[in-house]
Amino acid sequence: MAPSPSKCSRPDAVTGVLPVDALYEILLPLPAKDLCRLRAVSRAWRSLLFDPQFIAAHGARHPGPLVVAGHPTPAGRRNDVRLYIMDFRGCIVKRFHVPGDAEHKGTHQVLASQGGLVCISSDLGSRCRLLDPATGAVSTLPAGLAEEHAAAHGTDIGQYWAAVVCGKVAATGEHKVLRVLEGMRGYYPGHIPEPLCEVLTLDGGGGGFARSRGKQTSPDPVRARGETSSAVVDGIVYLFVDDLAPHHIAGSKRVASFDLGTEEWRRTLQGP
């Protein structure tokens, strides 16, 4: 049965030989990439294809994961970040321009999106922002160490590489960030800052974060420098154990796991 014109919030905007309800039914089954090209046919077609109700109906008929891609764009003394949300057909669904930090000239890295948020990292992971694609709101993680860590170790976050992972706790709906810190060499002769672990909770109402909370480190060292592979499933963070850690078995992969709900490390998983 053909949908009534009321399914399009602007039926009067589409004119031509075909009635709007017929055009609606013809275009709805097409892939998103083809629809992007058809926007150039006329203003009337563009109006229909940008109609929120048409977009919602098309999304319901063509479910599938989206891909987040980004790159830094030099803008004066800052490095702005441009993000693109795409489907697997290569169609850009949405674009974002995240202004850079005026005090930071280094490059940014777009990390894996977890729990519906996109993580933008810089300064070796010590500085981090979260973007909500639904609203465009950007939240900045506190740059310093947790109070208990700063007091106990007398160091600053600039002496660490940081692996940052964002996930959602299913039971509470909270978004939390796990930050694993690995000490750098060279600050003091013969001294390497010991590994640290911190958790932050995103304040959904205010858009900010609760203060960092120092936690026990992983029972097996987690690599925070360089490329860090991570995943979040049902509120559990999974991270590869450092290949250079003691007792590592050559050719094997061990996976550390952290429960965002209880904020505790779980048993390390042994790979092949």
TrEMBL record:
Q: SUPFAM superfamilies from the xrefs?
A: F-box domain (SSF81383), Galactose oxidase, central domain (SSF50965)
CDD domains reported for this sequence: F-box_AtFBW1-like
Origin organism is: Panicum miliaceum (Proso millet)
Protein name in the entry: F-box domain-containing protein
Q: Which residues form the F-box domain?
A: 12-58
In which domain of life is the source organism classified?
Eukaryota
